[in-house]
Write a structure and sequence with these properties.
Elements lengths: L19 H9 L1 H9 L2 H10 L36 E5 L2 E5 L1 H4 L8 E6 L3 E6 L5 E4 L5 E4 L1 H51 L5 H10 L9
């Protein structure tokens, strides 16, 4: 340096990004990158022109000991209080404000879809069908749908109808069977009377005729 030279000190402050990879870059590689940039001839020329100087020279770069060594050290600076029921968690190497739907997958008891509302907190859209319906703040309540009762009463009505048909069929069959048996008995009785009755046959008349013939007496 010559007499009359101006020594300019500059301080640069870097904000740590919310990313583990970039934090490591700031702590381990930034000094080398800045040194290469400030030692570049074109960059030094631009600096000289900015100070109306004939030439600028880089005396050196110094870094303070980093206060943030990894992503977990950023936790005190993460604030999720403006989001209802959100909590801070590390996801893919960075801090995120995560809602209850992600931290508690069973919030709706697997019976609905969970939605994170940044103002009201988590809400559930419960599943429902014609046969069953889930309801409640967390879909933890259950009731049968109108379709279930329709199917139930329809099945009972069908079963009752079948039972009535069976009863009627049994009654008709018994009645028909009774009529057939009575008819058969009458036919059988008439057959027996006709088959075993010999009172009007010709054999009996002949016998009676021979019995009525006069007897001849012999005289001596």
């Amino acid at each position: 340096m010559t007499e009359g030279s101006v020594v300019a000190k500059s301080v640069a402050e870097y904000s740590y990004p919310n990313n583990e990879t970039q934090i490591q870059f700031v702590n381990t590689q930034l000094d080398r990158v800045l040194t290469d940039i400030l030692n570049d001839t074109n960059n030094l020329k631009n600096i000289s022109q900015a100070f109306n100087s004939s030439g600028a020279v880089l005396n050196g770069i110094s870094f303070h000991q980093p206060t943030i060594t990894n992503i977990t050290d950023l936790k005190p600076f993460i604030n999720c209080s403006q989001l209802a029921n959100y909590t801070a968690e590390i996801d893919n190497g960075q801090w995120q404000c995560v809602g209850p739907c992600k931290t508690n997958p069973d919030y709706c008891h697997q019976h609905g879809i969970c939605h994170n509302d940044i103002h009201k907190g988590p809400t559930c859209s419960c599943f429902e069908s014609s046969l069953e319906q889930f309801y409640g703040p967390q879909c933890d309540l259950f009731r049968r749908g109108p379709g279930f009762y329709g199917a139930l009463f329809g099945s009972l009505a069908a079963a009752l109808l079948i039972l009535i048909i069976i009863v009627i069929a049994v009654i008709v069959i018994k009645k028909y069977k009774g009529v057939w048996i009575n008819s058969y008995d009458r036919r059988l009785s008439a057959f027996e009377e006709d088959f075993f009755d010999f009172s009007d046959t010709g054999h009996n008349k002949t016998s009676r005729g021979s019995e009525q013939q006069p007897q001849m007496k012999a005289t001596v």
